[in-house]
Every structure is written in C-alpha cells, then in structure tokens.
From TrEMBL:
It comes from the Bacteria. Its cofactor is Zn(2+). Keywords: Oxidoreductase. Residues 24-141 form the Alcohol dehydrogenase-like N-terminal domain. Residues 180-302 form the Alcohol dehydrogenase-like C-terminal domain. This is Zinc-binding dehydrogenase. The keyword Transmembrane does not apply. The lineage of its organism: Bacteria, Bacillati, Actinomycetota, Actinomycetes, Pseudonocardiales. PANTHER family: L-THREONINE 3-DEHYDROGENASE. GO terms for molecular function: oxidoreductase activity.
Length: 340
C-alpha cells in the first residue's frame, strides 16, 4: 500500500509499505479517505522526533523505527473485528488507552499511563489502510462529507478544552490565537451559545474567526501586553507564544479561569503573584478524552461545514511535503479524488 513514512529529520518518503495487520477482536481496518496534517506532524518531520520512536521502541506501542505518520484520519471500514460493519464511514480519535489505570477509570483516558497515538507512537493513517481499535472510532453521518469529517480529531481537542473550562452558559470568553485549534475553539464555543472574543496578530485569521462565530476580533502585536477588552471569566490561550500566558492572565477577571491549550516551545514566565491575588485559576488542556469529546466533534461537523474556513489546501499523497512546510491547514486526499 502507499504510505508516508518518516525515517528521520526532513526524511519523509511516500513509498510502498506493508499493509496493516489483520484486525483482531475489537479492531477495525480502515480504508483511509482523508488524513489531516497539524503542527505536531510538521515538528516531527523537521526534527525527526521526539514523539515518533524512530531510534528505539515506544514503551507502550512497542513500535520502533520508520513510522507511517498521520493521526487525523477517516475512511471506510473494510475489515471489521468488532463494533462496526464493513462499509461504515468512521473517524478515529487516534489515541489508545489501557482502560485500567486510575486516569482511565476516572474517564480521563487522555492521561492514561500507557497512552500512545497512532501516527506518532506507531503506524498511523497517512496510508491507504490502517488497523485501529474500534473503541477509538465514531461513525460519520451520511450528510457529513469526508472533507469535513476529517476535522473531527482536532475539533475533539477543542471540545475537550471547552469542557475543561466549564464556562458559564452564555458567558463571554476570550480566545487568544485564531489559528489551528484556536479557530476550531471559536466555532465550538459559538455553537454552544458563548459570546466569543478573539485576539490574533493575523488579520486573515481574525476575519475567518468572525465568520466562524466570533463576536469581536482584535488585532494585536507579537509582544502585546494588554488588550482593548479585559475582565473575561474564561480565557483560552492557544497560541503557545511566549507572551500568550502573560496576556491571558491580564485579560482574566478576578476569580476567572485561564485555560492553557497552546504548547510553548520553551518555558514561559508569567506573573504568579497577580494570579494569586486575583484568584485566577490557571489550568491546562491536552488532547481529548475520545469517548466523550469525539462524538461531540462529529455532531458539530454533521451540523456545520467548517472546511472553507479551516482547510487551506487539499493535496494528493505524493505532494505531502508541500503541506508539511506551508502555513495553514493541509488535508491529504488519500483516495486521490481531488475534491475539497
């Protein structure tokens, strides 16, 4: 089968690879239609890790060496080992959990002590076929096209951040950073009836955020210290920039909550004293809890087509390198139909 295989830094090869293993009990083999690329894929490609186990086996997946990338994938079930029927369209959450540890028993499967991800910790969905556990998959409704359904995994990350925030109904929230997960957070929060305000340094991203449902959009500089508006009960920091967390805490009302979603490239300092005096909660959100967040993501995508605002380009598998080195959201069309 054709697959995109990562061998090392800057060394991604589209080649003929061995097909996936036959599905066991409770597993599915998916004929992949679409697979999205995200910033993590670009980072792993540029640096040859560290999440991809290219040099030593991953402790939980057991995989080591060249790895088929891709953790945002959807397609049709072609061999069913449980839970679905052949021909069903599904999206995969991509993360596997043990179901036995304390985090799993608490429903926080994204924090499983033996968690690993298809497309990062073992072979993933940037290929014609992939075998995965059925429990990480959700059926795609008939009215939801492939090009929209492929966004389910990153939308689930936005859903998880919303749940972590516990923003009061119909309250005002601020999203710092309107690219990637930030844009999806805007759409998900607006869909829940929250009044969403957005700040970003890119005018085009801000315009897209308005179309996705943002009530206001503010253009800020890269080292901005303040915003024109503040006093928000809930602030999402999605940029991962060095100034983002500082700006987020300053924009939060006393007793409010900052949800850190973006991953800074290095340790970030912020004014802990100010946060303590104002009793501002600073919490984090990582990945998604598949059984809870992925169905909500599919439900949103079944009701609203987000492709025009989120997806920058759709490329065939042989042109994947163009997507890994370009700005914006890239989706790879594994079937080669060329449809958006």
């Amino acid at each position: 089968m054709k697959a995109a295989v990562l061998y090392g830094a800057g060394d991604l090869r589209v080649e003929d690879a061995a097909g996936p293993r036959e599905p066991g009990d409770g597993e599915l083999t998916i004929a992949v239609h679409r697979c999205g690329l995200c910033g993590t894929d670009a980072h792993e490609y540029a640096h040859g890790g560290p999440m991809t186990p290219l040099r030593a086996p991953h402790p939980w997946s057991g995989h080591g060496g060249p790895t088929i990338i891709g953790h945002e994938f959807m397609g049709t079930v072609c061999r069913a080992g449980g839970g679905f029927s052949e021909g069903d369209r599904v999206v995969a959450g991509a993360g596997q959990w043990c179901g036995e540890c304390s985090a799993c028993r608490a429903g926080r499967t994204n924090l499983c002590r033996r968690y690993f991800t298809y497309g990062l910790s073992t072979h993933g969905g940037m290929a014609e076929y992939v075998t995965v556990p059925a429990e990480m998959c959700v059926a795609v409704p008939g009215g939801c096209p492939d090009g929209n359904a492929v966004l389910a995994q990153p939308v689930a990350i936005a859903m998880h951040a919303l749940d972590r925030a516990q923003a009061p109904d119909r309250s005002e929230v601020l999203v710092l950073g309107a690219g990637g997960i930030g844009a999806l957070l805007v759409a998900a929060a607006a869909d829940r009836g929250l009044a969403v305000h957005v700040a970003d340094l890119d005018p085009e991203r801000l315009a897209a955020a308005r179309r996705l449902g943002a009530a206001t959009a503010e253009l800020v500089g890269r080292d901005a210290d303040t915003l024109s508006g503040n006093g928000f009960r809930t602030v999402f920091e999605t940029s991962g920039s060095t100034s983002g967390l500082r700006l987020a805490t300053r924009a939060t009302a006393p007793g409010g909550r900052v949800v850190a979603v973006g991953l800074p490239g290095r340790p970030v300092e912020f004014d802990v004293r100010a946060a303590v005096v104002s009793e501002v909660d600073v919490i984090t959100s990582s990945a998604h809890a598949c059984r809870r967040d992925l169905p909500m993501a599919v439900d949103l995508l079944a009701r609203r087509d987000l492709r025009e605002e989120i997806v920058t380009r759709v490329l065939p598998l042989e042109n994947i390198h163009n997507g890994l080195t370009a700005a914006g959201k890239t989706v790879i069309d594994i079937l080669g139909k060329g449809e958006r």
